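for the recovery benchmark. tokens below, seq after
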């Protein structure tokens, strides 16, 4: 089991979710987050003064998958999230030791779904 965390541009979220859905990956948690990477924020002009914003709005997707869905999830996120520009985001993959479905008490892979 793996736990995948992806940070993507907000305008790419619907495309990423559709690509995941196309690959039968339905269980996703989405959060609005702020952060910065290599682009180091943006510079805006306000009343003739440049103001640097250090944090940009992003979307964080969290997905728990069984081993057979790991590569499909990665491919979906990359295909849906890529624009080719700096700031497209990152994917982090963690080992998932266990999962417990609260309703039934199931554990492991079956609890993920």
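predicted aa per position
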């Amino acid at each position: 089991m793996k736990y995948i965390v992806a940070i993507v541009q907000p305008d790419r979220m619907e495309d990423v979710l559709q690509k995941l859905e196309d690959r039968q990956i339905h269980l996703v948690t989405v959060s609005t987050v702020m952060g910065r990477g290599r682009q180091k924020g943006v510079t805006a002009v306000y009343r003739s003064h440049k103001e640097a914003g250090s944090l940009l709005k992003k979307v964080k997707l969290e997905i728990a998958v069984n081993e057979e869905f790991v590569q499909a999830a990665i491919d979906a996120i990359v295909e849906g999230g890529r624009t080719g520009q700096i700031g497209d985001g990152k994917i982090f993959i963690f080992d998932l030791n266990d999962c417990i479905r609260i309703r039934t008490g199931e554990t492991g892979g079956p609890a993920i779904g």
